[in-house]
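Before we proceed, please read the two lines closing this message. Tell me what the token row says about the fold.
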Amino acid sequence: MIHVKIFHRSGFHVSPCYIPFCDESDRVEEIKRVFGEALATADVDDTSELINLINSNKSSLVDKCMIVTVSFSTFLVVSGKHGIIILEGLVQKLDTLKKTAAFALAKMDVDEEEVLPKTLRRSVGEMKDFLKRK
């Protein structure tokens, strides 16, 4: 199971727009959709694979983009009509029993100091950070 969160960090479109026939709001929503699909299917550590998945999408609203990874976050930077659009993506892959258990315990908000063994404490803390991130 994979959990993906996408945050819109920069490039907000203000209505009413002074550019006639501006489709920036539609473009931002399409970019979010394409970025979410790419994050869910690709290996997040391989940025070239993410770029290939984004470019292979047939959407005309997504053209030139750049991928940046910082710590656990993956950023998509795209040029827009009103400046650059920056999206942040976080991916949590629950591919092991330990990660799945840590995610379930984090959702239940279990206190990791008192109840959990040492092997799960760090994982539950990371999952809590992922769930709290806004």
Observations:
- The chain has four helices and four strands.
- The first strand starts at residue 2 and ends at 10.
